[in-house]
Amino acid sequence: MATINDNYLKLKAGYLFPEIARRVNAFAEANPDANIIRLGIGDVTEPLPEACRTAMIKAVEDMGDRAQFKGYGPEQGYAWLREKIAAQDFQARGCPIDASEIFISDGSKCDSGNILDIFGDNNTIAVTDPVYPVYVDTNVMAGHTGDANEKGEYEGFVYLPISADNNFTAQIPTQKVDLIYLCFPNNPTGATATKAHLKAWVEYAKAHGSIIFFDAAYEAFITDPDLPHSIYEIEGARDCAIEFRSFSKNAGFTGTRCALTVVPKTLTAKAKDGSDVALWQLWNRRQSTKFNGVSYIVQRGAEAVYSEAGRAQITALVNFYMENAQIIRQQLTAAGLKVYGGTNAPYVWVQTPNGLSSWEFFDKLLHSTNVVGTPGSGFGAAGEGYFRISAFNSREKVEEAMKRVTEKFKV
Ligand SMILES: *Cc1c(COP(=O)(O)O)cnc(C)c1O
């Protein structure tokens, strides 16, 4: 008799977004004339930059030309793309990362889950609370946790609470943890990390032989010139960190799919016999066995991000979303709400007024303004009392949504 991976039964059945959809659909059915504005989901809305489209059209033409046709590409990604990433995203910022340490993939979501393939099952794992749910669920699936309690906390994780009290940056743990997930700029809180904060993490990791998984999916949204974009801006990070990046948010590739993972060749972890093994070697083996690369056409599209025109278009796209974030911040503040984030990230993290729970505020906002956001409690127990508003939408919808909120909530 075939059996299943019982760890899947521990997962809290995809509660957050289905529950949002259920409540929104029920409201829409009861109020067919309501003009609902969705500022909930973390997906981009604006079209692909022209430079990327032009490059992909040319790549399709290449595929129709016998001399230019490409079959399987390198599992690690084409060198012409990896070299541009190494030069412009890393070396230009003083990060000592070589093109050979960059692995192109079809997404950071899958990479941040797949990375567990090359780690043992007995690591102590730290996540912030609230957190991007992928880090948690992939560890549950891999059998690294026990069951969840009624608040949704799984036995076996070290949860690092983040709130307004600590600027949404976790206290460095006092106990030893082996794997640490950090996401800056942060989804869902929109918080950022200073160089000093990342330096403290790198020092901790080096002292304990820990590995940091650094998710930099939103680095392009950093506007403050003093903030680090990569963990490799911190000396010593090559020896303790893996970085995930994606073209999803900066270049609108959520539906096109291209991302990258950096595994420095100097990064090692322990084998059972106590020897140090290079993680690069294991990830390279993992990718070569289980992955056959990202399509040539998409990689050409990603390469165009690094052209002069591409860079200008990406900047304009990011600026557009960040202007939305400013409008959201200003209007919610004017409505008497306490807001965080939204200055170096496309998310505004709102403290719910009058002690309302995240879901109570969700319902109130939906019913009184027909605006949909995301309850903070869906990202973890410590997200209770907060609410996420996304800047990914058209200007018109953001302005209309904020006009309604200020009218209803103005004190
Ligand atoms: C959107 C997002 C990503 C990017 O995921 P892709 O699979 O590359 O689209 C990664 N991490 C976080 C926290 C995100 O919000």
Explain what this protein looks like in three dimensions.
The strands form four sheets. Strands 2-8-7-6-5-3-4 form a seven-stranded mixed β-sheet, sandwiched between helices. A four-stranded antiparallel β-sheet has the order 11-12-15-14. A two-stranded parallel sheet has the order 1-13. The protein folds into two domains: 10-47 and 311-409, Aspartate Aminotransferase, domain 1, CATH 3.90.1150.10; 52-308, Aspartate Aminotransferase, domain 2. Helix 2 (50-63) packs antiparallel against helix 8 (296-303) and helix 3 packs parallel to helix 8. With 411 residues, it is an alpha/beta fold. Strand 3, helix 5 and strand 4 (157-161) form a beta-alpha-beta unit. The protein has eleven helices and 15 strands. The longest helix is centred in the last third of the chain and has 27 residues, at 308-334. The mean pLDDT is 96. The structure holds pyridoxal-5'-phosphate (PLP). The site of pyridoxal-5'-phosphate has 14 residues, from helix 4.
